[in-house]
Amino acid sequence: MSNDRVLRVGLLGAGNVGAEVARLMVANQQDLAARSGVGLVITKIAVRDLNVPRPGIDSSLLTNDADSVVSDPSIDLIIEVIGGVEPARTLILKAMSNGKAVVTANKALLAKHGAELFHASDLADVDFYYEAAVAGAIPILRPLAESLVGDRVQRVMGIINGTTNYILTKMHETGASFDGALAEAQSLGYAESDPTADVDGFDAAAKAAILAGLAFHTQVTDADVYREGIRGITADDVSVAKAMGFVIKLLAIAEANELHGSKEETISVRVHPTMIPLTHPLASVRESFNAVFVKCESAGDLMFYGRGAGGTPTASAILGDLVAVARNRNEGSLGPTETDYADLDIAPIGVSRTRYLIRMDVADVPGVLASVASTVAKNNVSILTVRQEGRGADAELVVLTHVATESALANTLKDLQQLDVVKQVVSMIRVEGLMS
Ligand code: NDP
Ligand code: HSE
């Protein structure tokens, strides 16, 4: 193969994802070359610790000097799979300014500094691809950025964190506590020893920001995303939901808000535990799988499903990007750039509208229902169903509301807590996917 028929790749990171990228590039070398129209060759691999055994990786390619990889004039493309903000951000910016295309899986970085990176790739006239950053193997970013770019996206709703979906699946199917299911997820290697990024919703919020930005042609960062994790979900919450025909999932939702009066169009982006009916397609997304629903004005409803994590599935998305860059390069072209022309405002959480399930411990005395109902109604929230279960002198009251704004719901909860008959508001969980 002559020199100009080779695309030289510098790999930053050889952990779960990077090691699989390296393995698959060797194992599928011939096919990748035939599909790309050029040979794809890893020239250098940057890692942190040169003493870590790395079976299957040519040790002569390894360096612990990542800067030397992004500065190497013989390298055409950088795959960044170090993760985190720094040094990944600086390395990617330097690679771009040195004329190298970049492929990354780094959602944490994109959700904070996406605009800076897109601008840098435009300035340098280089490709920047990141399909693996959201929902691992599932092709969702290219469909939003390319296939659906002629449509108007109205809503994106999905399960985009595998660890929390595994935990919630175990809680639903076995009655496990949150702590028990988390320990199991950790022992299986799904959850990290510090599970904060997953269970507190930071990972899903970063991915939600990326999805929302593409769907609504607007700059969205992780700071714009309303976020609640699953730490507060109890076995009781799960069992009440199940008894009512629901399952609890950590959902990411990005949607265009309804226009009221002459106000400008806004979007909302939120991540929180959500009850969905057991009959909803997202309810059957079990264990560490991910799925994303996209609702468009013309295309209608679309669903994307698959493995959202894991070295090999994630490497699949990275290799897809790699081949796309190689093909662009053969044609002397670049892939599509980001569009943020719509520049929509991101509404505060109070504007979002959904249904709510409120669980309360109340005194089991005459008039309780009436006083709860009038407190809810006073706040412009309408009740869909009420379920009451006696427990001696007390009772558990479970109220499912019609659609209401988050601000109306917040006021309702505040007022309910003031009622003498309400001993405690035990939990509030949002509800999606009901038809009426
Ligand atoms: P790992 O922690 O397994 O791997 C990180 C790699 O980066 C390691 O090889 C590490 O070296 C190397 N590294 C860390 N710091 C430096 C540095 N300063 N210079 C050079 N190398 C460095 O992460 P993952 O492979 O799991 O994740 C990589 C990226 O992919 C992240 O952005 C993540 O969010 C994303 N991603 C991961 C998925 C997954 O399922 N794991 C799914 C989708 C996306 P060493 O080996 O010596 O420690
Ligand atoms: N920790 C993430 C998850 C990995 O559980 O989905 C993929 O981003």
Walkthrough of the structure:
The structure is a single chain. By secondary structure, the protein is an alpha/beta fold. The chain has three domains: 6-136 and 311-331, NAD(P)-binding Rossmann-like Domain (Rossmann fold, 3-Layer(aba) Sandwich), CATH 3.40.50.720; 141-307, Dihydrodipicolinate Reductase, domain 2; 349-431, Alpha-Beta Plaits, CATH 3.30.70.260. The protein is 36% helix and 27% strand. It has 14 helices and 18 strands. It has helices at residues 16-27, 29-36, 66-70, 88-97, 107-124, 141-147, 162-174, 178-187, 196-199, 202-216, 235-243, 311-330, 368-378, 406-418; strands at 6-12, 39-46, 62-63, 77-80, 101-104, 128-129, 153-159, 226-227, 246-256, 266-277, 289-296, 300-307, 345-346, 353-363, 383-391, 394-401, 404-405, 422-431. The strands form two sheets. Strands 7, 8, 9, 10, 11, 12, 13, 14, 15, 16, 17 and 18 form a twelve-stranded mixed beta sheet that branches. Strands 3-2-1-4-5-6 form a six-stranded parallel beta sheet, sandwiched between helices. A hairpin with a 2-residue loop joins β15 and β16. α2 packs parallel to α12 (311-330). The longest helix has 20 residues, at 311-330. The protein is elongated and about 80 Å long. The model has no long low-confidence stretch (mean pLDDT 95). Bound molecules: NADPH dihydro-nicotinamide-adenine-dinucleotide phosphate and L-homoserine (HSE). L-homoserine binds at residues 136, 161-163, 198, 203, 308-309.
